[in-house]
Amino acid sequence: MPDNDQRIRYATKGADGKFKPPFPVSPVELTELTRKMVCREENGTHLRKYTSFYGVGVYGGIATAYSVGCNFRCVFCWVDWSRDWPERYGSFYTPGQVYQRLREVMSGCGYRRARISGAEPTLCPEHLCSVLDLVHREREAFDLFVIETNGVVISQERGFAERLEKYASRDRTRGTVGHVRLSIRGGQPEAFEEKTGCTQDSMELPFIAARRLWDAQVSFHVAVVVDERFTSPDEEERIYERLADIDQSIASSVEREILDPYPHALVRLRAVRREDITGNKISRKEEAVLRKKPPA
Asked: What are the DSSP calls for the chain, one per residue?
């Protein structure tokens, strides 16, 4: 991992089909680099960068806080350039401001559900838990609050899963409204590296997170990319086997993801020479997002 965090943008490959440096990267090291740009503490209050707050139709209609910064570099990622240039995008918000903006969206759209999405919501754990505290205090206003994550931080920080259980318990008598959506990107090291731009040994981290969430009695489900352009049937089966080793119910309730070629995803896929998906000609959608791409 280079000292200059300005270089950790999106993965590219050379004519030899190999990643160009600094890829593949360590998501653990990338976590620390990204935190310096998207997490902040001021007078004991933990702030986080976001770009927008809006309503969207998934989950039956949900208010969304669009966070900045991720510790994966998935080649099919749909997130805008704030993922790769976190220092250039977004503004810092306090937990109270995030909560208020989400409630405003919920009220305006008639929703009872909310989430933190966009990039990796767990990068700033204290900020996240402070938002969840506010949700928990007024949980009668919510049917559901979703925390979407790739699991890296949960796998690295002991006790984090137990903290989440306070807000997202499998024990329905606890009266919590939180739920974790854990994305598992790969079940074979080489394929995981190809999809995420991260080192092969990092493949284990989401599975460690799944075990910790299960042991901590957290309400969660796993999302798996089953699109055969990225995940072979053998790899998909291996993922299910690994999840079943924790508990069969986890494997049985997997959310199966088929990927759409959003404009930013097309640019990232072309950069790793996936013309089988992008085609040879750059589309107008790609041209539009390329015009907005910050200088390297």
From this structure: --S-GGG-S---B-TTSPBPTT-SB-HHHHHHHHHHHHEEEETTEEEEEEEEEEEESGGGSEEEEEE---S---TT----TTTT-TTTS-EEE-HHHHHHHHHHHHHHHT--EEEEESS-GGGSHHHHHHHHHHHHHTGGG-SEEEEEE-SHHHHHSTTHHHHHHTTSBS-GGG---EEEEEEE--SSHHHHHHHHSB-GGGGHHHHHHHHHHHHTTB-EEEEEE--TTT--HHHHHHHHHHHHHH-HHHHHTPEEE-----HHHHHHHHHTT-HHHH-SSPPHHHHHHHHTPPP-
